[in-house]
Amino acid sequence: MSEQALSGIRVLEVGQLLAGPFAGTILGYFGAEVLKIEPPGNGDPIRNWRLLDKDGTGYWWRSLGRNKKSVTANLRTEAGREILKRLMLTADVVIENFKPGTMEKWGLGPEDIEPHNPQLIYTRISGYGQSGPYSRKPGYASVTEAFSGFRYLNGYPDEVPVRPNLSLGDSVAGIHAVLGILLALLARNNNSRGQVIDVALYEAMFNLMEGVVPEYDGAGAIREPAGSTLTGIVPTNTYLCRDGKHVVIGGNGDSIYVRLMTAIGRPDLANDPALGSNAGRVAQQQLIDAAIGGWTSAHNSAEVITTLEAAEVPVGPIYSIEDAFNDPHYEARGMFEDVETPTGTLKIPAILPKLSLTPGQTTWAGGTVGSHTDEVLGSVGFDEDALATLRDRGDI
What is the pTM of this model? Predict the structure, then answer.
């Protein structure tokens, strides 16, 4: 493979669980050298979360820990913090997701490191950001998704707000951290200076709120949960078919709407001038959804999809991960990668986006705790005797 987009960039990943480590995974996939700092012993908790393989390691870890060099350092000891500081002086990027103030307490905050490594890009991920009255509050993704306003919009009216069965806030924050890091690297090319990137989980989710803010400020409208629809855009919904499966149909473009209604045998609705624009369709949402739902309920999902695809109407099934594994398009697009683990070959997801000249790749699956400690610390001046002493004292 040709040189990757981030070859030559050293990233120091400090912190546990998901947001910071997911950012590190993305950077490592595209060629950065990612040094993951873990506490001696059990390491990152995700190593032991959810479903475990025969060795007692989480399948999730094999994906999240890919391409990373695991270095142990006990940050509760002075020697462990000195190790981290020495590594920070060699890094291009630091990613930390501790509670705000923790790194400063250890003498490892941005102002402590900047005089010694002014080109360092110091990336901070927390629940509520590094400033403001809530900055010191603990903020897991579940809580910050709610605080952002995102959870309010999910589910059905007058029911408990729904959480997607993913740690969405962490993943979205990790992607925002990568965006900030790449922007800072571009800026550094021009001014040779690093900078601090402040990513808050709630703000990353708030960044998804599209037109919700100006609609409230301009019109006083509070967007409410709308089930499987999208408020103010018709028709776009989920419909039940005769075989018990659901399909998603997006017929909200004016010309697409005409093709959709013609395909389902409703030329009266297709050619009604009052329904020719989105505003008119919004006023008759129940009528339109009832017509589409009545048609889908009389046909199996495969027939619905075939008919609407022939009419060039956006339509698709709702996939489980098993469906994705068996779909030829996923295979053709290289959405799964095989990695070798101590218990056998395992499929993990490819990381997007796809680059034509400098694509990313998985080089190895997440390894054991501290598997690269000697290699990495040796590269910054620790000899065998020093490493042995640190290990005996529990510093690594």
Answer: 0.95
